[in-house]
């Protein structure tokens, strides 16, 4: 080998090494990709364990779940009713513009808890003959309705605060009674919020979000009310406007985020991959997956699969393969219903 060829090979090796060295940003993205792949593989293993477990009849009804959530809602409603009663008979509390959102939120808590209790009661008392697939979607409708109620309530508070600034009718008063009532609200609602977040269901998260907003409004109400009383009176209505604007935005965003689930948004890629993985590993006689559609029309996903089997297989075997596949996929926590269609060739239909 000549010296020239050696130099060329050494240069090519250096260029290959440079290509293999990635920038920090590219390296970060690559690490994130592999982390996601490892998480997905773990989910594949968990899914295989899940489908091996038999379905227990005690796990099918949601009576226990609904009873726990009803208890949380009733507790939150009781606290809100007590707070609303106290604020009604301590009028000085609502003389502060920044404290008014706390009164509005307490009143709206009762309305939201009332709406969610109606939805959960209707779901738990569903007539299977009249609603063969149940009425679980009522929970999502209740969530969106509560979001709209809370958003409009805070928009009205914004208009009142602006009106008080324009007409120069601001006269904030931060008394010991105001401070005590708001402090008690904050502590009690923080406890209920922790319970709701720990529960983790859709309805509980709605209540938790409402309580989180309450904690923010109460904290800012104390700060802005104090500043308005002792420093600058317009700090009170300006604080109320900022608080209500943030709350109205967060509830509108929450409603918008939940609407796609009612109108058929596609499932996430990881969820699609998990279902396809179960399908391919279900039975070696499944030749192809001709068509798959995984989408939401409520809290959980609907799955439509077209699989291809040998046309010479007996009806009994094809039925058992497809039926067992449906039952296995329906064991996944994000799946409401699975439909498997069997075909003998890939026709794309």
Automatic annotation (TrEMBL):
UniProt name for this protein: Protein CBG20465
Domain Cation efflux protein cytoplasmic per the UniProt entry, residue ranges: 269-343
Keyword line: Ion transport, Membrane, Transmembrane, Transmembrane helix, Transport
Main localization (coarse): membrane
Coiled coil: none
Keyword DNA-binding among record annotations: no
Span of domain Cation efflux protein transmembrane: 104-263
GO MF annotation, one: monoatomic cation transmembrane transporter activity
GO (cellular component) term, any one: membrane
Record-annotated membrane-spanning stretches: 140-159, 179-197
Subcellular location field: Endomembrane system
UniProt entry tagged with the keyword Ligase: no
UniProt cross-references to PANTHER family, sorted A to Z: CATION EFFLUX PROTEIN CYTOPLASMIC DOMAIN-CONTAINING PROTEIN (PTHR43840:SF6), MITOCHONDRIAL METAL TRANSPORTER 1-RELATED (PTHR43840)
Membrane topology: Multi-pass membrane protein
